[in-house]
Structure formats: structure tokens, C-alpha cells
Amino acid sequence: MKKEELPQDDSALKVMTRELCYVKDNDGKYTTGLSTGWDVKKQALDNAWEEINERVEEAKKAVKNGEKSPIYYFMELRLMDMPVLSGYTGFWSFNIKRHMKPDVFKGLSDKKLAIYAKAFDISVDELKNFKG
Amino acid sequence: MNKEISGFKHIQAAHCENGATTSLLRYHGLDFMTEPLAFGMGSGIFYIHIPILSINNGPAISYRSMPGWIFSRTCKSLGVKVVRKKFGNNEKAAHDFLNKKIVEGVPVGCQVGVFNLPYFPPEYRFHFNAHNLIVYGKQGSDYLVSDPVMETVTKLSEEDMIKVRFAKGPLAPKGHVYFPENVHKVDNETIKKGIIKGIKRSARDMLHVPGNIAGVDGIKYTSKQIRKWRDKLGPRKAGLYLGQIVRMQEEIGTGGGGFRFLFAAFLEQAYGYIPNEQLLAVSEDFTKAGDLWRESAVQMGRIYKGRINNEQKDFEVCADLLLEIADIEKQGFLKLKKMKF
Predict the structure, then answer these.
(1) Contact flag B240-A47 (C-beta cutoff 8 Å)
(2) Cβ of A123 under 8 Å from any chain B Cβ?
(3) What does the pLDDT read at residue B308?
(4) So what's the pLDDT on residue A71?
(5) Class assignment of domain B188-338?
(6) CA angle B271, B218, B51 (to 5 degrees)
(7) What value does the mean pLDDT take over residues A2-9?
(8) How far off is chain B from A56, nearest CA to CA, in Å?
(9) Are B273 and B91 in contact (CB under 8 A)?
(10) Which residue in A1, A18, A49 is closest to B290 by CB distance?
(11) 3-class SS at A64?
């Protein structure tokens, strides 16, 4: 890629930095250039977020319909998956899956709820009272 | 505490670990160090597509070697001792140790998670735990931070620092800090040897890792998968999968073209130490490979952008491009493997 071909498109990164890329100068030697962004990858990131937002919406519905507990919703909202949530809570994924059942969730101790709330960066009340 | 470690210079890099390696070694007097050299000596270039495993609901693909290896290998080649420390769950010990190193005047590399990194834009905050930054001082209760992917230096509060150093999940940093120690002058002979070692190791990794999912074979494996995705996953999800490939390949941290331009730049710099014309020729091969990776990203973009070019034949075009890339890289690494130094 030549330096003058380095894309200078809009991107979410603009609030933080331009990114450094390795490009060729006019003599065919490597140099570095700064890019504000590239539409091709912005679109990929936008699509990924669209997908995430849909997953969160679906999780919300699942809680509302009584199919899942709030733990499932907040896991999606915080972009977590089982290994990540397991890491933050110290619970085995087998147990987390159980805690995602509304009936099991109702019986969870305050201590366990507090661990989840901390992992999601919310209060225990918010976690308990989330209705979808 | 108010202390800025004098002599530390922020250097912007394409990739965080290359950048941390470069600026830490330069701080210790190794002025020849550049990002491409660190990347090449550390054999950063790689390719792997792990089947079944999915990351962020997409394919698990990486264009580089394991986190931490670039720094370790480059330092080892140069005879530089590396100190690493992890703290399990002991946040206080991790906090105290970092403060102690600042008082001692030692810039320290930290492994962090980006999910809670406040200066990252929200769109970029995923649970990725192998980001690297350097702490080079403290102002009141704020750490002075040199994040290698950024144009300028930045700051992190004590509270945020603990959060990012103790991010959880895969590759959890556990407070991991690292820094070089007892750095002596390095002669040209040692640099040459380090370069050759890096080149040979990359050639070995890309050509001879057993199985069909890593190295140039891995690129062919991805190509084969891409041909199946549309039927298997449906047009929409298949498009999202392509988007994930493009992000792994082109997002901030790669230098463009899935690290291939960085590798080409390394070979060009290697020629400065080892005047063998073949290095320049192979550098051109990898520039070509990088350009084709970019072209494949554009082609994939056409698929996931519009809903129009989303037919099987469009996926075939991407898959064919990857085969072409695999072949160019294979020839390039074979030349490097056979080169006599």
C-alpha cells in the first residue's frame, strides 16, 4: 500500500487517536502513515454492533417472557460470554447456566447476587428488579 | 506521588506489544530498536484459524503469534533479561509493586484488558485482555501512561488501573507487569543473529506447524471454510463472519494487511544489517501479500456492506483471493527458509 492510498475515512477511533500503518513512500521504501479510519472496517464494526444490539434486545425479551433470568440479559449487555462471566464471578459455567433459569434465580442468596452485580457493574437491586 | 521518569519517550506503534518492546528497549539505550525489528526478531507474524471455537460469535482467527512472545523472544535474542510478575488476585500487591517501580524510576509494561479502558471509544471496548501499555510516572493519583497505539500519552486513575490490570476471562492479566533488566550494549553481530533467528523461526512456523489450521495451510483452511459459510450459516451470518475476519486483519494494532506490511518493513530493515538482495525481493512478496489481504477485505466488505453482492460467487472470489495469498506467502517463506546467511 502506498502512503497516498492510506484511507482517511471516518471512524469511532477519532476521539482517541489516528492509527499508525506501514506504507510505501514514493521511492518504494517503507515508512509509516497515520489513518483516521477505513470505511471497510468501520462497516464491519458497525455490523458487529448491530448484531450485539439485537442479541441484547432478544435477551431482554427472554427475561420479559420469563424464559431467562436477568443474569442472561446483563451478560449480553456487558458483551460477556460464559468464560468471561465465569472469570468475573468465579462460578462454573454449569452453575451460571442454572442461575439463568428464572426459578433458580429467585432462590439465589444475596451474596451470590452481589457477586453478579459487581461483575456487571450494577447494584443488586437493579439486578433483582430487572423485568425486561 | 508526583514523578515522571525522565528519559522515557512515547513512541507510537501499529501494534501494542511491538510498541511496548520498542520503547522499553530504547529507554534502556538500545536506540537501534524499531517496531518492525521488534516484530521480526520476535517472529510476530503468524496465521491460525481455530475450528469450532468462536470469538464474539465469529470465527477465531489470528494473524500473529501468542501475546507476550514478541517481547520475550526479542529480548532473549539481544541477551536482555526480562522480569515478569503476576499477582493472582492480589490487587494490593500489584498496586504497591507498580508504585515501587515508579519510585525506582523504572518504566513498566502492563498487560491490560480493554473493556474498562476509559480512553478507548466505547465501540472498541470488548473483553480483549492482551493489550499492552507502559506506565512511566504518576501525577497525584493518576498514572502517566504511554499507550503504544496512541499518538500522544495519556493518563489512568488508580481505580481504573486496577480494573484493567485485573480484567477477567480468557488471557486474564492478573496484574501482569514486565520490564527489561540489566540491559547492556548490543553489537551489530548480535542484532544480525537475532534477525536471522526471527526470520528462520517465522518460516518454520508458517510452513511446518503440524495440522492444516496454522501457517500458510491455515489460510487455505479459512478459504475452504468461506466457501461453505453461506450455505451453512445463511447470507447474513456468513457476512458477519467475514466482517470479523476483516476486523482481526485490519483493525488498529495490525499495521494493515494483517501484519504483512509490518513483516515486509522488517525484511527491508533487515537488509540494512544483512545486505542480501533477496531480503528486498521477499519484502516485495509480502507487500504484495498485504495488498491482497487488503483487496480481500474490500471484497468481503462488498458482501457485508450492501445486501446486494451476497451470493455464493462473491464468497468464492474471497476464497480464491485467500488461496492466492497463501501461495505468495508460501513462496516467500520458502525463499527465507532456504536463504544462507
Answers:
(1) yes
(2) no
(3) 63
(4) 98
(5) mainly alpha
(6) 145
(7) 96
(8) 14
(9) no
(10) A1
(11) helix
Distance in Å, alpha carbon of A44 to nearest chain B alpha carbon: 5
Which candidate, B149, B152, B173, places its Cα nearest to that of B162?
Answer: B173
Place of cell 473493556: B115
Q: What is the mean pLDDT of residues A37-56?
A: 95
The reported pLDDT for the residue numbered B256 is 84
pLDDT score of B307: 59
Q: What is the mean pLDDT of each run of 10 residues along chain B (341 residues)?
A: 95 97 98 98 96 84 93 97 97 98 98 97 95 97 98 98 97 97 95 98 96 96 96 93 94 89 98 97 98 96 81 95 98 97 85
Determine the CATH number of domain B2-33+81-181.
3.90.70.10
How close does chain A come to B105, measured CA to CA in Å? 28
The answer to whether residue A4 neighbours chain B at the CB level (below 8 Å) is: no
Give residues 84 to 113 of B whose Cβ lies within 8 Å of A: none
Q: pLDDT, tens digit, for every residue of A77-120?
A: 999 999 999 999 999 999 999 999 999 999 999 999 999 999 99
B13 contacts A51? CB cut-off 8 A: no
Cβ-Cβ contacts under 8 Å, B258 against chain A: none
DSSP character at residue B85: E
How many A×B Cβ pairs under 8 Å?
Answer: 126
- B266 contacts: CB under 8 Å, gap ≥ 6: B36, B37, B39, B40, B198
- Chain-chain contact of A51 with B57 (C-beta, under 8 angstroms): yes
- In the block, cell 492478573 appears at B174
| B92, B166 contact by CB (below 8 A) | no
Which of 1.10.260, 3.10.450, 1.10.8, 3.40.50 is the CATH number of A52-129?
Answer: 1.10.260
Query: Among all chains, which residue has been given the C-alpha cell 442468596?
Result: A109
Residue-range domain boundaries for chain A: 3-37, 52-129
* Cβ neighbours of A81 in B, within 8 Å: 127
Rounded CA-CA distance B152/B70 in Å is 23
Domain with CATH 1.20.120 in chain B: 188-338
| pLDDT of B44 | 96
Find residues 266-325 of chain B whose CB sits inside 8 Å of chain A.
Answer: 268-269, 283, 287, 290-291, 294, 297-298, 300-301, 304-305
Of B151, B250, B298, the CB nearest to A17: B151
Q: For A49, which of B123, B251, B304 is closest by C-beta distance? A: B123
Q: What is the mean pLDDT of residues A53-58?
A: 97
B312-338 vs B188-208: helix axis angle to the nearest 10? Answer: 140
